[in-house]
Design brief:
The chain is α/β, with parallel strands linked by helices. It has helices spanning about 5-15, 15-30, 115-130, 145-160, 175-185, 200, 245-250, 260-270, 275, 280-290, 300-305, 325-345; strands spanning about 1-5, 35-40, 50-55, 55-70, 75-80, 95-100, 105-110, 140-145, 165-170, 190-195, 205-210, 235-240, 255, 300, 320, 350. Helix 2 (about 15-30) crosses helix 3 and helix 2 (about 15-30) crosses helix 12. It is globular, with a radius of gyration of 19 Å. The model has no long low-confidence stretch (mean pLDDT about 95).
């Protein structure tokens, strides 16, 4: 068994978002083929959570076990720690991943999973764009120019060569400046516009990526997108909390998820309406389905689209993609990192 640190992972992946996107593609092919196992009553749970209060702040921990077959044949658990800012630490999140041999259960590795989480989250959005966005897309909007959206931008620009404009809505000058520098250093012919309103970012964009926060005091504080701001055939990638009018979600958009069964599990675990407790757009899809306002057949899984088992009917509607993170994605990328670490003799042997 070996320990693999975030620094080891960085040296292995080397910010190659295209490599990670290919791993995510294989992951979702296995999911589409039902070659996976997750926890929970419905077999599709995001994970088992505990919470308690310390120093008047809620601490949430989530155990995210899973098995992924296909090209991986690996089992393991991601341990999701609380999102806190602590002195002398530049990371708010604390994630750990343990991988086991799927047959014997023998532990293979324990690894830091902060970078694993960032890379796989970004790569899932890039993968969705490859299969859902217009091939001739010319403009990109970024709401929340942090680390994940920087990776998403890199992946999208690698695949959509016609994009020459990016509209950026951020909250702080520091994150905006870092984003601009990283993107313009690599893509010098792309023009970046800094805007102060979500409307100004998204209204002219063919692809929109929203990745801001996973905690807001109230729903109205979240990034809000009005129907009039959405271009025909545009794509909205929502990997964090976001807010769209019900009219858009009911009959004004194509609706795609990483795995809709996970949002059904949220309803079972958090209670209805799940969107009130975890405001991923997929949970809003599930709420509307339970209310009888949309049909289950109106909601598509990205794996089914990748494997061509289903096809969205050609129309002028914008498409909204919801991803909230599956342990299966962590297992897939973690296993590939483990294999490379063994090959390169990277990591620290525990026993």
């Amino acid at each position: 068994m070996i320990y693999i640190s975030d620094n080891d992972i960085k040296n292995i992946i080397q910010d190659n978002i295209d490599l990670v996107t290919e791993v995510m593609k294989e992951c979702f092919i296995a999911i589409s083929n039902k070659d996976y196992s997750l926890s929970g009553k419905l077999g599709a749970s995001h994970g088992a959570r505990i919470s308690y209060k310390k120093q008047d702040k809620e601490r949430i921990f989530i155990a995210m076990p899973g098995y992924l077959g296909g090209e991986f044949n690996i089992t393991g658990t991601k341990w999701h720690g609380p999102m806190l800012k602590l002195p002398n630490l530049d990371k708010e999140s604390r994630y750990l991943l343990v991988l086991n041999d799927a047959f014997s259960g023998v532990p293979l590795t324990i690894m830091d999973a902060n970078l694993i989480t960032q890379y796989r989250t970004a790569a899932v959005s890039v993968l969705a764009a490859m299969f859902l966005a217009q091939k001739e897309a010319k403009s990109l909007a970024i709401v929340g120019p942090g680390v994940i959206n920087t990776l998403i931008t890199t992946g999208i620009l690698n695949h959509f060569k016609n994009i020459k404009e990016i509209f950026v809505k951020g909250r702080g000058k520091k994150s905006i400046d870092i984003f601009v520098q990283k993107i313009q250093d690599k893509y010098k012919d792309v023009k970046i516009h800094i805007v102060s309103k979500v409307e100004d970012a998204v209204k002219d964009a063919d692809i929109v990526s929203i990745n801001t926060l996973l905690s807001f005091d109230k729903i109205s504080d979240m990034p809000f997108v009005k129907k009039d701001w959405m271009k025909p055939k545009s794509l909205f990638l929502c990997s964090a909390f976001a807010y769209f009018p019900d009219s858009v979600l009911i009959n004004g958009s194509n609706k795609v998820c990483d795995l809709f069964a996970m949002y059904e599990s949220y309803e079972n675990e958090l209670g209805f309406p799940a969107y009130k407790y975890a405001s991923f757009i997929g949970n809003k899809f599930a709420d509307l389905y339970l209310e009888g306002k949309i049909k289950k057949s109106d909601i598509f899984d990205i794996g089914e689209i990748i494997t061509k088992k289903i096809q969205i009917k050609d129309n002028d509607l914008p498409t909204i993609f919801s991803s909230s993170g599956l342990s299966l994605e962590d297992l897939a990328l973690g296993f590939r990192v483990y294999q490379k670490a063994k090959e390169l003799k990277i990591g620290h042997k525990i026993f």
